[in-house]
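Exercise 7. Given the components listed, write out the predicted structure of the assembled complex. Treat all entries as one system.
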Amino acid sequence: MKARVHVMLKRGVLDPQGEAIRHALGAMGFQGVEGVRQGKVIELDLADGVTEAEVTEMCEKLLANTVIESYSIEMG
Amino acid sequence: MRAAVVVFPGSNCDRDLAVAFAREGFDVTMVWHKETALPDGVDIVGVPGGFSYGDYLRCGAIAAQSPICRAIVDHAGRGGYVIGICNGFQVLTETGILPGALLRNAGLKYICRTVELRVETADSAFTAGYEKGQKISIPIAHHDGNYYADAETLARLRGEDRIAFTYTDNPNGSVADIAGILSADRRVLGMMPHPERAADPGHGGTDGLALFRALAGVLAPA
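Answer.
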């Protein structure tokens, strides 16, 4: 089984990398991109029986820094 | 007086920090990150700058889970002194010993130069050798030094006089120009600038010396 963890900077936390991407897209002529946020995806290969609750604990303790980041988990 | 300097894979300011402690009379032990305990009788732990674990995942995140960090959390919990510089500051926020987090510099660039700091409080073992409001020159060298704390945390830091240093010309986007903060018991300092790189005339500046000298003054046996 796999779990896919999405980690994003929280709303309200400045994302300078996202801003740089937005500027670059504008400079390339792509119109109408009003905001860009950059995050990361972490894929976990899990043995049978590992629960979403355990993945949540992994997120809280290591995969995300909940001071600045939010996360979401997709199982399966 | 005993100091321990922690060494992670990727630490690169560990020896500089050890030299800065030693010249003020500390007996310094280097401690590998896989150790599960600090040496007996350690008065202060130094968490040095560098790129622990290659900054993988987040700066300081993997180091914060290492065995020695559990011992450092316990040491701080008992009222022990800790100083975290640069990557060490990132490690201390990742362990939760200090509040907030360090984000990518607002300008996205790695910055390596000497900056001017304002000493915001002289009320700590680290800053007692300075005057409040004093301006000092200390080098920075970081890519992720943009201090972030939410409004509530910031209000608490201000209300409890826990902002140790601010930048006079903010280089990295840090909230409230913060360069360094203290723990609630004032015995843990985290700062992005490198006082150990301004602790010898050969460094081109000695404004960091007063920090180590003040610590030695507080921790010297009576």
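Discussion: The mean pLDDT of chain A is 95. The interface with chain B takes residues 9, 13-14, 16-17, 20, 61-63, 65, 67-68 of chain A (CB under 8 Å).
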